[in-house]
Amino acid sequence: MVDAADEGLGDCTPPHTAQCAPPLVPPLAADARDDQAAAPLAGALRAAMTAQGCARLAVALLAALPADVLRQALRTLDGLLRRDFVGALPAEIALRILEFLPPTDIAGAVALVSRRWRAVATQPWLWRRLFRTRGWLLDEDRWALYAAFSAPADIGRALLRQDMARAARAFTPASAGTLAPAVAVQLGSGARLGSDAQLGSGALSPPATPEPRRGAAWRPVDWRAMYAEYHQLLANWRDAQSRVYRWETAHAESIYCLQLDQHNRLLTGSRDHTVRLWHVAEAGSQLAHLATLHGHSGSVLTLQAAGPTLATGSSDATVCVWDLRTAAVAQRLAHPDSVLSLRFNDRWLATACKDCVLRVWRRDRATGAFEDPFALTGHTVAVNAVHLHGDMLVSASGDRTIKAWDLATRSCVLTLDDHVRGVACLDFDGRYIVSGSSDHTIRVWDVRSGACERTIASAHADLVRTVMFDRRMDVIVSGSYDETIRVWSFSTGALLHKFRNVHTSRVFKLAFDRTRIVSCSHDRSVAIIDFGAGLPHARLLR
Predict the structure, then answer these.
(1) Domain F-box spans what residues (predicted)?
(2) Contact at 8 Å (CB) between 133 and 100?
């Protein structure tokens, strides 16, 4: 059974200007005397005759011409009727015009019109602008690996080594010796959505760095391909095209918290009193255990890492601030009861305690240490979740309220109380709060107005334990005690997908990025729902 007391819930440069396109056909042979006579005669005829009359006269004149001259005249007329404005314009102007078209038209119909149009429609500069104007990001540093290696397997091994180096570079040889041995966890080809996959183990042997192609030159980013992959990735989210991978015994006990960062580093905290550091492989089907941290005497209920700093909160009534460069506890902050949630940034550390009080430490900019604590009171039962954005702290409590606090003035500036039962979780991006409650609902709040913008009634069949959202992706992802993970539209509140059988018990925490959802559960498992399967560059997308 779940220990309820333990849980505590109550730029690229544009191409050079193109030269104007040459005439499509050679002009008619010119004669100076003809030119001198033709212009005034044409003007007089236009003044004396209607357009229809001029047309009939032109047809009569053409009919009287020799065949070879007639063919040349008709080719000239055809060129006048078919002006290739895109091919004739400077490249910068042509590209600006094409930007107004849907990308599917640029890649399809526009590119098929002519060679000139295709040359413009495939310009990397155009596709880079289209990519970035949609707010999409690419890890361009890692693109170098794709240029240096020829075989996909070599690329995968190189990325794995790079990610592992990023995740584990903080550990010195001396401290690494005190950590649990690393193991590699691999699932063959992966399990389809909803099916189980068993945990394997073995000694972790970092892959040998493959040799780059000899004489390999730098290969620029294929922005058109990147746009197509991102478009497909969004379609995979929309259509639930994914693979599910699960590791059954990532810890010896229930896993309460996790964090996934941009370097494929995964941190998990458990009822077994430990924090584990993992590397998530590029393909999503491999999980490498890099380290185990021992420092708490109770369940690890909450954690956050940023750079070399890791903060963890526990049912042992302490917060441990770790220096990941030495795997040592740099600070231990005492509390009167279980620490249920915490958040820190470059200015503050805020904790939520079971004693109903929020505690805040100021961060020393020189040393990074947390000092000068103060308390914020106002909740009447346990504070279940907190989130920081700049100087604004938001908190959720079992007293059914969400409060926003200005840490500079140490005052409560907003109280939201539309939930009818305790609020278990929240996420905050500086403008919007998304909250989940034991009333089974998810609510979206605008902090500026204090209004509840949307209510997703009966979002789950049980307590909503974890939520996260991304406005750029237009998604909310939630996990519940009903053992499901659900994806919603942020803008409409519509249910997009329901993932069953990812876990066999309560979902305690989840996180997601552009390509995957990572979750943990009371059943001791870690699961990954991978939307980037089959997209070779998906992990480069941010």
Answers:
(1) 83-130
(2) no
